[in-house]
Design brief:
Layout: E1 4-8, H1 10-30, H2 38-58, E2 62-66, E3 79-80, H3 91-108, H4 115-140, E4 146-147, H5 148-169, H6 172-179
Parallel strand pairs: 3-4
Antiparallel strand pairs: 1-2
Helix pairs in contact: 1-2, 2-3, 3-5, 4-5
């Protein structure tokens, strides 16, 4: 294989995907599909752009380098499996990055019903990001590192986001407004009236 060095920007991949999603969302909102119109459409759009933002920060640009352009550092030297007990200025941004995740999960999924569930999901998302970065380095020599501190910070951010949304849901007025944004079947949607239940 000869010398290769190029990169794929986030706009090249995520731009078309977001465009298609927005078109689908617009069509379904116009047809008043349940869970796709009004404030629930805002939730779906917010989740889509948030996901794109996270991918832009953690995966893109995808840099492909071979030959004399390739990084010669072995991939296992980029793995930091032991938490650092020193001040790391990237810790706070990594916490903040998954706070919206913890807030969105209860609004879009039934699995966002408890702190434990959301924390586990945040951990899985963070682990997926770290594994993807490692695989990209192995395959493309793109210089991404794998850090257990990022994993801890991301997981903490997801848990913090859930605690924020749970606190909001405890207030009657705020909960009523927030539940209008919750997708059908999501944890934040609230209890439903049983079919055939007597009116009160």
């Amino acid at each position: 294989m000869g010398d290769i060095d190029f990169e794929i920007g986030s706009a090249t991949v995520l731009g078309p995907l977001l465009t298609v999603y927005c078109l689908v969302l617009a069509v379904r909102a116009a047809r008043r599909r349940p869970g796709w119109a009004g404030k629930q459409a805002v939730t779906r759009l917010t989740a889509a752009f948030y996901l794109a933002g996270v991918l832009s920060l953690t995966v893109f640009p995808v840099v492909v380098s071979y030959g004399r352009y390739a990084n010669q550092v072995p991939w296992y030297e980029l793995v930091q499996p032991i938490p650092l007990l020193v001040v790391d200025f990237s810790f706070v941004p990594n916490v903040v990055m998954l706070v919206p995740f913890g807030m969105l999960v209860p609004l879009v999924s039934r699995k966002g019903s408890s702190l434990k569930r959301v924390t586990v999901q945040a951990a899985l998302v963070s682990a997926s990001i770290e594994v993807t970065q490692c695989l990209m380095y192995v395959l493309f020599n793109n210089g991404r590192s794998v850090d257990v501190n990022d994993f801890i910070a991301n997981t903490l951010g997801g848990a913090l986001g859930y605690l924020i949304i749970r606190t909001v849901l405890r207030g009657a007025a705020a909960a009523r407004e927030l539940r209008a944004f919750a997708l059908p079947g999501s944890a934040a949607e609230g209890p439903r009236e049983r079919v055939g239940a007597p009116a009160r």
